[in-house]
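User: structure tokens for this one?
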Amino acid sequence: MGGRAVLAIDQGTTNSKAVLVSSDAGVLATGSASVGLSTPQAGWAEQDADDIWRSVLQAVAQCLAAAGPVDIAGIALSTQRESVVGWSSAGEPVGPVIGWQDVRTTAWCSTLTASLDTLVRERTGLRVDAMFSAPKLRWLLEHADPDYVGTVDSWLIHRLTGCREHLTDAGNASRTLLYDVLDLDWSPSLLEAFGVPRSVLPEVRASNGGFGTTSGVPGLRDGIPIVAVLADSHAAMYGQGCTRAGMIKATYGTGSSVMTPVESFVADGCTLAWLTDEPLYALEGNIVSSGAALAWTAATLGLPDVGALTELAASVPDAGGVTLVPAFAGLGAPHWDRNARAALTGMSGSTTRAHIARACVDAVAHQICDIVDTIPGTPGRLRADGGATVSDLLMQTQADLLGHPVEAADVAEISALGAAELAWTTLGETTDWAAKRTARIFEPSIDADARATRRTQWSEAVAAVRTS
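Assistant:
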């Protein structure tokens, strides 16, 4: 095949992908490998750092084999965010990877003072919650005693560079509760409050600030620069071309992320999307269980996969009064009630498996609406990406419940492409890939009264499971 390409590595919760991308956004080849996830106790979610690394190597090998000869101009990373890794000075993993959805630190978080929560919000834009990295890092330091810690991007950079670099990008750092997104540095006050020494943390660089070069990586030549690093939801926003206030995107993954750029930092629900010449801030709401809810419901109903679930859901016109609130690990934004528990309500003697399947699809869309409803102004249209967007039923349901059009991205690898686009821009190429793409457009098909009825039913079900 030949030519120059950026190798984009997209490391997510359930799989790792490798995508070779040309400077005009052409996808030359792809590869993927699954990643294991274990739940040793209720509310715990763990992965193995070596397994993550192996999956990356497998995905890269598969991608390169499919591409044939190619000149790799640089590497771009898009990674799962708040999950944390610890390793020894010899570069070996120490303890488990504690996943972003892990809630083992919920009780500890509840003991923290209101003044600390205020400080966290003022300096990070986030709130104290078990989803974010700092409580997990504290737990890892107390129970595994690693020499170095970081988020998944740091671990991959460490391995890609032959264990020479300990680096992270500002966007990933902003999700830890330890990084001051105004001063653009680790916060001494927050490090002290969470008991995380600065010496174990990576150096923070701009998202296109250079992250070393490859060394000793099977299948890759030495010396390939790691050009760009973005957190996966941030990379999706970059890939969707959402770079201005008023634009909004939703990523449908294991959980979901709704993001919209803002002109300046606000101390509630704000995050640092990326740092290039200057920081770009975004309002964000995080949903704990969306794709995970679809997978759980499919398994519970004895279906082979989520595709079969959405097909079953489409066989009925509505959920027949059934509501599923998928609070399997509590509720994320905008409710932030980690003690809430899942509920299936409204069933009758006429309820079928199809109604339950439809209720799950509805639940994914309702959760997105809950966040969009908190964003000032109206979305105009929602740019959607992620695996679940292949479902026309889900996308139509989303448009119906929002009352606004939904644009579903025409490519599955939007996070990888977002990271690759930043890399190519950094390498000096002119890019505007989002403007060149097509999308599936879904217009609302129900009236305001029907929408209000369905939203009220959902809100009542959520209120019934909340504890705060």
